[in-house]
Amino acid sequence: QVQLVESGGGSVQAGGSLRLSCAASGVTFSTVCMGWFRQAPGKEREMVALISTTGSRTTYADSVKGRFTISRDNAKNTLDLQMNSLKPEDTAMYYCAAGPVVGCFVPGNYNYWGQGTQVTVSS
Hints:
Layout: E1 3-7, E2 10-13, E3 18-25, E4 33-39, E5 46-51, E6 58-60, E7 68-73, E8 78-83, E9 92-99, E10 112-113, E11 117-122
Parallel strand pairs: 2-11
Antiparallel strand pairs: 1-3, 3-8, 4-5, 4-9, 5-6, 7-8, 9-10, 9-11
């Protein structure tokens, strides 16, 4: 059973920071690309950040570039998202996801999803 479990969400004031984590099981973690996605009420799910199998390459949505950092630890089968300088518009349910090596930076290729963790940023 493939499982992706997010943690670290919560409520924070604008300008604050949060660190999200994702624990993976039931998959050879080092052979899959990983990513963070988010979805706000009434809006479509969007890609936040993606990372290659080794962690050597990353890509970010323009809205979070310079504020968020995605990272992975293949020895621990974990994925992290450090979020700094948070804004109210960052409020959303954040999801951890896994995808194939080919097409690593194509958001539509991601096919395994976690249950999500809520991030709420107040002004």
